[in-house]
Amino acid sequence: MADTARADVQGAVEPLPDRALRRVTLVLCVSQITTWGVLFYAFPVLATRIAEEEGWSLTTMMAGFTAAQVTAALLGLRVGRHLDRRGPRAAMAVGSAVGVAAILGFAAAPTLWWFLAAWALAGTAMSATLYPPAFAAVTHWGGDRRLGALTAITLVGGLASTVYAPLAAVLEQAGDWRTAYLVLAVPLALTVPLHWYGLGHPWTRTTAEPAATDDPPASDRDPLLRTPTFLLLVLAMTMAGLAIYAGVVNLVPLLAEDGLSIQVGAVALGIGGVGQVAGRLAYAPTLGRLGPDTRLVTVLAVTGALTLALAAVPRPLPLLFAIAFLAGTARGAFTLIQASAVSDRWGTSGYGARSGVLSGGVGLAAAGAPWLGAVAATTLGGYDAAFVVLAVSAFVAVGVVAGSPARTSLRR
Known about the structure:
The chain has helices at residues 18-54, 58-86, 89-108, 112-129, 131-142, 146-157, 160-174, 177-198, 228-249, 251-257, 262-283, 292-312, 317-346, 351-380, 383-402. By secondary structure, it is mostly helical. The chain has a single domain, classed as Growth Hormone, Chain: A. One of its GO terms (molecular function) is transmembrane transporter activity.
């Protein structure tokens, strides 16, 4: 049976009226700050305490976090195809419900294996609730106004670490890590009805090329996905994602290794969230004026330099916090670059599937970031050395982008 919230045939997308688009943007702002905060940013703050209290290996727990990111990345293309055909309503509502189940699984975990299984469930939730589905929704419904909606969503989403990293630390201090997760499940549960009732606008099917049936998916035949230009862009974004996300999730362990408290690490993580907001506010009047590859190269070069700085400057605290803020600005700009990378180069047709592939690469990098960071620190003798490796990854990505100029072929 056809979904009543979409057209059964592919056609021209009708952007939402301003008022409806503002409502959708508000819904996604609330859901993104909540979902990122609960499913992603709480764990780096709580991980060290969980390892201490339960006697579980921190590296193994980070591997569980990695497995969640891998799950989300691998499901990204499938979710993207669903979005191109049916829209975000059901996917994001169900994803939120699965996320609540995962958080409750953390809180109840009697063993490390249970805890790791809950991370696999969390990865399924992430694939349907984090930025890629939200980006697909406003890119489809926003038309020429999509940059404003994308900016608003990432501005608010960028505050997730600012709000939820300190909140997780406070909840853990007031009770324990299990209590913290139980409390954090409440705001996440509220996003289920928010998605269901707030994202029910009509959806026009859009794929990379017309198809008479849903099987096989049109996106399987999209020639763009196999072009060198697209694949090199995916590679560069993946390497950039490794540097950026590993820097986020390993920041607290880096600072703890340098003798700073978990609370100081949480504050630095939160300041980075404020930096994300600043980076997104400044994006349109600064980087937005540049070409797609020029702004990506700029952000990657800055990211590499600041990652090196984090490894070298644990004190004084004001300088550390300033570096964390600047690193957050680069991270914030990168999120908008990721959101617009496909549409800036090849248009909005088939955005869900195309962006799903691109986001899948970034997601795999984010997946490997926690575990690879911990392994690199163990292998190289500390997190300082691991952060140097992350900086090199960002600089190599600069070279990949520089060798692959943007193309506008296959734009639809």
